[in-house]
Every structure is written in C-alpha cells, then in structure tokens.
Amino acid sequence: MAILNRRGKRKTQAVAPATENFAFVAELPVGEKEPLWKLQVQMVTEPQADGERLRLRAHLQTNFASALRPALAAAQARRDGTERAALPPAGAPPAPSGRSLRLAERAGHAVQSVAQRALAVPLVRRLAEPLLQLDLNTWVEIQASTASLDAGSHDLLPQQERLAALGIRPKRTGDQPIAETWAGEARDGFAQVSVLQLDKRHLPTRLRELIGDQPFGLAATVVNTARQKP
Fold this sequence. Notes:
The chain is α+β, with helices and mostly antiparallel strands. 23% of the residues lie in helices and 34% in strands. It is built from five helices and seven strands. Strands 1-2-3-4-7-6-5 form a seven-stranded antiparallel sheet. A hairpin with a 2-residue loop joins strand 2 and strand 3. The radius of gyration is 24 Å and the shape is elongated.
C-alpha cells in the first residue's frame, strides 16, 4: 500500500499517485438457494490533496435461515422419501462426478453434511434452532488518509450522514483513540454499530517512523445485523 511507503522520498519531482481499484467476491454455496457465506470486498486508493486516501469496504453475509435451513430441510425430505430427485431427460450426459465439482461446492456439501450430523443430536438441535432462524450481515468500511485534514480521523468517518440519521454522533479523538458502540432493535432483528477513530499520534513509534513526516488518520465503521426469518 503506497500510503505507508513515503519515507525518504523527495518532493522536488512529486507525481500524483494514480487511482487503484481492487475488488473480489467469494461465496460458499449450500443447497440451491442463497449461499451460506458470501464475502464482497472493494478497495480504492486515490489522491487526496497533499496525500492519498484508502477506502476499504467489505460485506459478509451468513445465511443460516435463507440457505442452510432450506438445504437441511431438503436433505431430510430426500431421506424420508418425500422428495424424489428429478430424472435426467433421455440422452442427457451423465451427471459430473464429485471430482469435477468446484472446490466451493465440495466445501458446501461438507458443511451441509457436518450440520446434518450435528443436528441429529437432540441437545445440539435445541441449541441450534434459534440460530437457524437468523441471517447475519456484517458491513465494514475503513478510510485511511495521509492528507492534511482539519479534524483528522474524524473527517474520515464513513457514512456520517447515515449515522446522524440514526442519532449516532461519534466524539472526536483526543489523546487516546476513540472506539464507540451502539446497539438496539432493528427491523425483524438486532443491529450493532461500532466506530473507530485513530490518528497518527496514537500509533506506535515504529509505525510513525515508517509514515515519516506525512499526516495520518484512520476511521472505521462496523455494522452487524441479525435478521430473523420465520
């Protein structure tokens, strides 16, 4: 990350850094509906005034209610003989063997198999039933900058307008970094919002030396939700 590689460079021939983008999506399928887990990550590095800004966004979905529960119910129905697999049409090529399955599909089948065995134990089933009613989501947004900002890391706080609409107004950092958390009921479930603000003066000495003379600020917002599905 170029934001930490400025020490020892002269500014006599400064060149504005180019914008860099990076993104990927990964998921773990189980059954035929929603994936059990899905991770989306996006990172953008761009010029900002006399420095650079890094923006990192990540979204993790864990679909116990929308994916794992229907997959387990379908597997149980097949075992009970109440559901028959559809026969392939005449002349259709044979189904691919397990070796040809994608790694993610194999992992999904393995997770489903482990879950089935675990839920066969009555005590585990009772403890897991509430979890199987939930879909969990985590959103993480991080912004870091080496630009000169009037309010330091407070100016980098992601989604400030949305936070204000929820009545959340984070404090500004002082001699110590700020970490705050709010929690409460949300639509069909529960929500938690956490905020972190970190300025250069809060960093360890070794890391401050790596950054050099440039300013530094980092702010992060983490939102967790648990939504219940009947």
